[in-house]
Amino acid sequence: MKNPYEVLGVSQNATDEEIKTAYRNLAKKYHPDNYNDSPLADLAEEKMKEINEAYDSICDMRRNGSSSNYSSGSYGTNSSYSSTSYPDVRQYIMNGRLDDALELLNGVPEGSRNAEWYFLMGMIYSRKGWGDQAYNYFLRAYQMDPGNPEFKAAFNSVNSRRAYANPGYNTNSGMGCSVCDICTGLMCANCLCNCCGGGF
Amino acid sequence: MFGYIRVDRANLLGKEFDAYKGIYCALCKQLGKDYSVFSRFILSYDCTFYAMLALNITTVAPCYKQGRCRFNPFKKCLYAETESKALSLAAALSVISAYYKLKDNLIDSPWYKRLLYRPLQPFFALWRRKAAKNYPEIDASVKKMLDDQLKAESDPHCVLDKAAQPTADMLSEVCALLPDHISCDERFDKIKLKRILGAMGYYMGRWIYLTDAADDYEKDKKRNGFNPFLLSDVSAEQLPAYIEASLNHALSEALLSYGLLDKGRYDSIIMNVLCRSCVNIQNEIVSSFHNKNDKNGELNEKSI
Question: How confident is the model at residue B113 (pLDDT cuts 50, 70, 90)?
Fold first, then answer.
């Protein structure tokens, strides 16, 4: 097993708070929701498991060694679905047999295509790397059944990718100016005006 | 290859930029060594990124040595020297993709440009033959990309995803090839590495294709050429947002795939490319659409 501190990317002398922050950042980054419709979903799940185990093991070590006050309790990785109209299709998608899954779904008559049908079409196209088609199907599934947490999560996930807002990553372009930049600018301008005898 | 995958120098540390520049110069040198001094002119940022991706996971780190630039003897450069095939692979990808791009240009371009390209063809063909002998998989992937692209473009039911797939598949195959040719650090599991690099390559390829398409949108629209963004029925007002969302999505997927890889020696530079440089490049392209829409809006107001 890997060194749990290395897995979390912290030193052995890190404080409890630092460990917690590192764990939270990694959990955000590798959360199954981010990879649900990705062909690498299984690898992300493995990574999440590794992080959870590392965090739990550090918590145990510290609880036993010192009297650190820790509330363990790692992020869950199991995303289950309660009922499904297409168990075979879901099985094919999980096994990577996307063409077979697509064939089964295309065989469903147009009149009986429910929100789950659109959601599963989105999953297939997303795993194929066809992001544009996947988005349209996820959107349709969400519009048809906005209360379903699975459809909502898939739609939110694809939406955040389309906005380049990826949890756990610093993906801001650094362009534009914030409120702080404006205040700093005004303060500098004020100083310059004071030097010249003016000011505001 | 289009040269969109480059670093954002303003957000790199001095030592990181030196490391990147060392790979760029070393690839230039490798092209000269493997093919010809003239093949150095086809050096691209995309292939430098490919070399960096390979060097990121090699067992032994490259050794940086100082030397003089062939084209400017007064300039001293750092060269990343490596025992691995990373640079040789990137050089092969450079000449093979340059050959097929030239071949494509000879079909697509107007007659006066073809007159310029024609004399270059025997040289490019010679380099490509040499590269294909060593790396037949790269040659097969790039050739397949061009054939599939032609097929996709002539398909009346073509959609954006289908049009982007040949480039995405090509880069996916070429990236997944890396663990077969270079000895990787023992931290990396070869099968997982191939899957992650393949997925990352797929979305980088998709991003490159869509970025180039967005860049050429106006030109293609004017001459009635093929452009994946002309396939959808999105209105002119919504087009910038649609393009931005498509590019963001491809880049996000590339980033999420890369995120599953254990950190290599060039992690900070690769993150700079994915999180800064590519974003800046696409922002620049998308803002030109916004500017155009603003101008049109102003003209409409004036006419009213």
Answer: confident
B273 touches chain A (CB under 8 A): no
In a mutational test of the A interface, the residue from B171, B190, B249 whose CB has the highest number of chain A CBs within 10 Å is: B249
Place of tokens 């002998």: B133
Residue type, B246: S
Contacts of A130 in chain B (CB under 8 A): 161-162, 165
* Torsion region of A134: left, alpha or beta (phi above 0 gives left; psi -120 to 50 gives alpha): alpha
Q: Considering only CB atoms, which chain B residues are within 8 Å of A173?
A: 276, 279-280, 283
B246 contacts chain A (CB < 8 A) = yes
Closest CA to B87 of B178, B190, B192: B178
What pTM was computed for the model?
0.86
Determine the Cα–Cα distance for residues B20 and B78; give it in Å rounded to an integer.
10
**Residue in chain B nearest A43 by alpha carbon:** B260
Q: Which of A29, A170, A175 sits opposite B275 (nearest CB)?
A: A170
Say how many C-beta atoms besides its own lie within 10 A of residue B143's C-beta.
Answer: 17
CB contact under 8 A, A158 and B249: yes
Is the pLDDT reported for residue B79 higher than 80?
A: yes
Give me the phi and psi of B184, to 5 degrees please: -90, 155
Q: Are B229 and B213 in contact (CB under 8 A)?
A: yes
CA dist B166 and B228 (Å) reads 13
Q: What is the pLDDT averaged over residues B125-139?
A: 95
> Who among B246, B255, B280 is closest to A132 (CB)?
B246
Q: Given phi > 0 = left and psi -120 to 50 = alpha, else beta, which region is A172?
A: beta
Does residue A74 register a pLDDT over 70?
Answer: no
What pLDDT, in 10s, does the model give residues B167-177? Answer: 999 999 999 99
ipTM: 0.85
